[in-house]
Amino acid sequence: MYEETFREAGLSLNEAKVYEALLQTGETTVEKIALKSQVHRRNVYDSLNKLVEKGLASEVFIESQKNYKATNPRRLLELLKEKETKLENILPQLETKYNSIEEKHEAYFYKGTEGFKNYLNDILKTNETVYFIGAKAFWLDPRLQIHLQRFEKQRIKQGIKFMHLFDYEVKEQKPEILDLVGKPYKFLPKKYSSPTAIDIFGDYVVAFVGVSPGKLDKTPIQFVIKNRRLADGYRKIFQFMWDFCPNEK
């Protein structure tokens, strides 16, 4: 009945069965414990020794016979508190080791429209604000719409925000993207337009090559770098650019 709870408190499967049998039978012999717990007699001896060590059982000698009985179940709480104390004592050392481990990083690329789907899933998984530098409105590409419908619904549900720095041409060539993504957005000066775009979210920096207003190349490629410090650095660059671009009315 209580076997699972005993195991969660730190007892092995056999220890839990034997301890519950002791609670139900009171002072008794190994033979009766084996019968009640349905644990092999040889394993009952091992479990009893461990329960005695943990203070959950005690030995009772009657003439030449050794019996066993359970101690107060409140001892289980004491065991848990002892484990908690031990963990608290070493926690500062564990945290030091954790913080000293070199930050993990990855670099890879996505290719094709299926790769774009992976990129969208990364945004949802990260669940942080997305910063767009040199945005081209290529999300309007007809090949992407099947992926974007589900993404946009889930993005709104998760409350993921967008901040766009669009290329200047988008304002004239693809203004419909502005209603789709919503504010806040700004435009880079015309002389800074390029065939690339950079998105930053969470640990990710994603660079797009061969993009233009409203469309992707035939086989789009996205270069992905995953590193929190790098992403934080790009966010600062974004903020600098944002601060010096005029507000949209």
Could you explain the architecture of this structure?
The chain has about 250 residues and is an alpha+beta fold. The protein is built from ten helices and nine strands. The strands form two sheets. The chain has a seven-stranded mixed β-sheet with strand order 3-9-8-7-4-5-6, with helices on both faces. Helix 2 (about 15-25) crosses helix 3 (about 30-35).
Q: What is the gyration radius calculated from CA atoms?
A: 32 Å
Helicity level: 40-55%
The CATH topology of the largest domain is: Endonuclease, Chain A
Question: Ranges with pLDDT <50 over ≥5 residues?
Answer: none
Strand percent estimate: 15-25%
Mean pLDDT: 88
Largest sheet: 7 strands, mixed
Quick summary:
The chain contains ten helices and nine strands. The chain has about 250 residues and is α+β, with helices and mostly antiparallel strands.
